[in-house]
Amino acid sequence: MKKPRWKSQRVTIKDIARLANVDPSTVTRALQGSERVKKSTRQSIEKIAAEVGYVPSVAARTLVMKRSQLVGVVIPDMTNPFFAELARGIEDEAAKNNLRILIRNTEGQQLAEKDAIKLFMELDVDGLLVPMARCPKEFYERLEESCPVIHVNRLDAKYHVSCDSLRGARMVMDHLIDHGHRRIAFVNGPSGPVKEPKMAAYKAALNDNGIHFEENLIFEFDGALQSTKEIGNQLLSLKTRPTAVFAWNDICAIGLIHALNEQGLSVPGDISVAGHDDILLAGSVLPPLTTVHWPMYELGQESVRYLLGLRAGYEPRAPEMHKPSLVVRASTGPVPS
Amino acid sequence: MKKPRWKSQRVTIKDIARLANVDPSTVTRALQGSERVKKSTRQSIEKIAAEVGYVPSVAARTLVMKRSQLVGVVIPDMTNPFFAELARGIEDEAAKNNLRILIRNTEGQQLAEKDAIKLFMELDVDGLLVPMARCPKEFYERLEESCPVIHVNRLDAKYHVSCDSLRGARMVMDHLIDHGHRRIAFVNGPSGPVKEPKMAAYKAALNDNGIHFEENLIFEFDGALQSTKEIGNQLLSLKTRPTAVFAWNDICAIGLIHALNEQGLSVPGDISVAGHDDILLAGSVLPPLTTVHWPMYELGQESVRYLLGLRAGYEPRAPEMHKPSLVVRASTGPVPS
DNA sequence: ACCTCGAATACAAACGTTTGTATTCAATGG
DNA sequence: CCATTGAATACAAACGTTTGTATTCGAGGT
Fold this sequence. Notes:
Two copies of one chain form a homodimer. By secondary structure, chain A is an alpha/beta fold. In chain A, helix 1 (13-20) crosses helix 2 (24-32). The longest helix of chain A is centred in the N-terminal third of the chain and has 16 residues, at 81-96. Chain A has twelve helices and twelve strands. At the A-B interface, helix 4, helix 5, strand 2, helix 6 and helix 11 of A face helix 4, helix 5, strand 2, helix 6 and helix 11 of B.
């Protein structure tokens, strides 16, 4: 035994046909439950198929049907519980409708995103689910000619399921301002479909409350937890410290709180910190996080339903905007006196 | 326009052949970079292929080659950062070796695991990566006849990449015992390849230190964060409270700490809590978690390398046991006096 | 001028399914 | 008893690649 070899001796429909003394076409139809085969033959075929351990060839079927019956899902960052939750919604709903999905992770990189899509196209997927896509609009418009593409939170896309990112951010800002905060730092994140709306909400909130915008209260978070330490330091080195921070997401908020603690500041005693996403652990950390809850699980489910509807030939209904909600916990409080 | 339809008008190798005035077989060979085609023809073919936007059909190729050049990965729970990290390792290493991988999530359910495997077999995958598989050994043994299957942490599997779960658990126990703890509660988790070793390590540590085992100090965690509240309550309703808890994983530990805090206990002042997994946030929560670090990213990378080696025909090297490490942070301390 | 050789390319079969059409066969009606 | 019908099944082509073998063609040697 030079090499361990793996035999790919597939049992085919022809083998079954031979054993059952019928034509291969009859086997297909029997396995599909077609009306055209007699009940008794179908049963004997099913029996044989089970006995020999028949495994259909997706490749062959795809070749003739021109569609693989698979749906590709492109997730930016599985490490982030926020997206993991969305993926769960997608998977559960897909399973319910026995749709088979395939997941790829892009780590937030455009290149990986394109690569994922490329693979899916080569696989003749039946549809694409692309939450928070990073690639430009035009890139997806080309794809839409060959298969349905559902976006999550891409208002400018043909088909999308979205949540009002502007509103969520605004709620956080209003909450902070209501508590008397005026110097509110804002940590923005990597580009994507929610970056701009959040920034817009931040500015609008300041503006509506007569607070003037300061460039040096704006920070940038790249998504890596360890980067929060640096942001924390920058924040503390400002001449006048902000009394509150609106962090890009909960990961960022938790990291920031940790960094601030290390510098001897307490949250929310000395400084309030709000997050975004309401990840699983958001309510269990100390202090429990004030954050914005997005119905990610539901958005996942709905995107699958949307796709199913489209495939069934329904007219796409007008995209309805889901509403995020503010979850006030203990990481935010009044301005320290 | 009754229905929005998606044309699946693939540009095929034949189309390119026609445009280039050659035979389809020449096109394939050109695109493969075969020596058998003249450089000039190859170049013109490549040019045409790019112009018309040729997308190869994985289905057709798989059909004739009997292998899809894809590797299936079955992850138990993407929501758990522990596995997400492993997935990252797998993906990165796969990308480096341009191997294409497909991920499926099982939510820890055997049924979903079987289903995932079934799909992968139908797709003629080139290999399977199955971390912390829930399904019985025999199930996988059958598969191993048709394609290489690499397990993570399944010592009894033919091919596996593992980390010493016994040792990790033992280190936590020794750490706690060194700090004077005698009544140590243990929260075990759902069945899988690490459940038994952890329990064994727990018992061995007690035994080696002359502490006798108490059944009512053993709890069971199902993986859902909210279940920790109930466990916390049970824990506090014991006649004599344990002074330390070894939790199944970090999620469980964080939930438990939160539950204990709510009941007015401080960690580690009143009770020490240790976790397992060293998830991303473990060091950033309050108190930072004492936990066991597993090199998940590396295990992911290595499992891919292992697979690659196997496919290349190398003899499988003796599986080396990776070593976990104890990360002592602030959630554990001496026994309260 | 003929033969050989090798480079470049063409031909054709095969992979496992699906599906439209053709065939068989028995039962029914006249 | 033959024509008609309809149920059950068989036949055959097609899907887009890959690959072993055959063909073509021109150059080089004799």
